[in-house]
Amino acid sequence: MTRRIAMRIEYDGGGFLGYQRQKDPAIPTVQGLLEDICSEVLDEPVTVVCAGRTDAGVHATGQVVHVRTESARPLDTLVRALVRNAHGRIGVRHAWEAPPWFHARHSASRRTYQYHLLVAATPRPVVAQRAWHYSREIDFDLLQSEGAALLGRRDFRAFCSGGEDLKHYFRTIHRLEWRRLAPGAASPSYLVERLPLWHLEIEADAFLPRMVRMLVATLVDVAAGRRPPGTAARVLRGRDARQASAPAPPQGLCLVRVDYPPACRVPPPGAPQWGEPSARR
Predict the structure, then answer these.
(1) Can you tell me the distance from the alpha carbon of 38 to that of 85, in angstroms, rounded to the nearest whole number?
(2) What is the pLDDT of residue 280?
(3) Is the terminal CB of the chain with fewer CB neighbours within 10 Å at N or C?
(4) From the candidates 24, 36, 43, 55, which is the catalytic residue?
(5) Is 55 a catalytic residue?
């Protein structure tokens, strides 16, 4: 019987050259490692499909993947083998037997990314692999107001790099918010205390290749006075990627959540599950 197994996973993008598997098997990718391990455990070659292909260096704490298999191997056996054989490079937060119509990418209704920005005169090594160090002063009110022009359904081809084969460039940004991070129960204080660390949370139905990083770089350039106010809106209207700022560094970006309609998000009654209750969304 054909099964569809879904998993919510996390990984540090610094050890991978992106999600998508490459022709050269020696190139480390998230998909390559997942497929190698899953194929061995399930005793058949499988393809692991993700909700959103992350670039080299981009992290994920809420990536969702699915695999279609004929194997009867128990769910917990697959998950434990994946965690063990990944040697800490990939973690599984939640896994479940998904309905036959579930598709990690096509069934997703929204995706949420965070981008971390360290605004300081000198680098701070403790967050170097999780944030973009920016040494110029920034007007954060302007940063937020400049981003407001990007909300709603728009043609975002001006903020896309490497998507020449796409059928269309329309995406809907539902939320774009910049916030100052502060110490709290969920984060060790030494990571954020006294650090001028900000993060962008952006939620959309889907994203184009490098879209978030190009948006971030353009907004930051405006807020730092390197480009005039209204640049983001003008670039958007011009539909020319050459007018956008070069993509912001990948290490500041993280895929934190993928949302699905209830029929896809909730496992069928009695279906096997594995993972932390807090990860089941």
Answers:
(1) 10
(2) 42
(3) N
(4) 55
(5) yes
